[in-house]
Amino acid sequence: DAGVTQSPTHLIKTRGQQVTLRCSPISGHKSVSWYQQVLGQGPQFIFQYYEKEERGRGNFPDRFSARQFPNYSSELNVNALLLGDSALYLCASSLTSNQPQHFGDGTRLSIL
Amino acid sequence: AQTVTQSQPEMSVQEAETVTLSCTYDTSESDYYLFWYKQPPSRQMILVIRQEAYKQQNATENRFSVNFQKAAKSFSLKISDSQLGDAAMYFCAYRSGLDGSARQLTFGSGTQLTVLP
């Protein structure tokens, strides 16, 4: 079975632009979480969705938004990009919100 | 809020030897889970081992084992018979077990493990 897949792998944007990152969970997994990992740090929680409903939100500004689709895939949107948004964005899926999370390879976002 | 602290930014071990990575955490909850994840240069975060707080027995997965000291809020990872493929960044993580919580992972800052041939 395929693991968690994220697209694109790399992305370069300029300040003020908007970006959409995509995540497909492991087949059968209904929970998706998003994390931001700045270089040299541990991942920081952004959002969690379960059964298409937001179950949690980390300490990120309203420029960050997400949604989960009926097939349980998810998108993370970031508006008005700042230099500080440069990071590796990780998606993780789990069978339910209570099961261990399995991560994708991430999307490397660079802001110029 | 829960916090996770990894006080060793870097560690090194000789191939075939044993190494212990430290982690402490702070929480007021009684029901929670602790994890060790491995992140090689390929970037994918790989689950190494998991411990439920209500279990007194330390978790073991092949060459990986933990020393869970609940009262001291300590959760160290021991890697036995270290292999070159164990070289990676290791993250300790906490997750609440409370009903209704978001169940997100709170990560430490990581320990970069180097395995010397």
Give a brief outline of the structure.
Chain A has 112 residues and is mostly beta strands.
Folded structure, characterized:
The complex is a heterodimer of chains A (112) and B (117). Chain A is mostly beta strands. Chain A has no helices and 11 strands. Chain A has strands spanning 5-7, 10-13, 19-24, 31-37, 44-50, 53-57, 64-68, 74-78, 87-94, 102-103, 107-111. In chain A, the strands form 2 sheets. In chain A, strands 2, 4, 5, 6, 9, 10 and 11 form a 7-stranded mixed sheet that branches. A 4-stranded antiparallel sheet of chain A has the order 1-3-8-7, with no helix packed on it. In chain A, a hairpin with a 7-residue loop joins strand 9 (87-94) and strand 10. Chain A starts with a strand and ends with a strand. The relative contact order of chain A is 0.33. The model of chain A has no long low-confidence stretch (mean pLDDT 94). Chain B is an all-beta fold and 117 residues long. Chain B has strands at residues 3-5, 10-14, 19-21, 24-26, 32-39, 46-52, 60-61, 64-69, 74-79, 88-96, 105-107, 111-116. In chain B, the strands form 3 sheets. In chain B, strands 2, 5, 6, 10, 11 and 12 form a 6-stranded mixed sheet that branches. In chain B, strand 7 and strand 8 form a beta hairpin. Chain B is globular, with a radius of gyration of 14 Å. The relative contact order of chain B is 0.34. The mean pLDDT of chain B is 93. The A-B interface holds A 31, 33, 35, 41-45, 48, 55-58, 88, 90, 92, 97-98, 100-106, 108 and B 4, 35, 37, 42-47, 50, 91, 93, 97, 101-110.
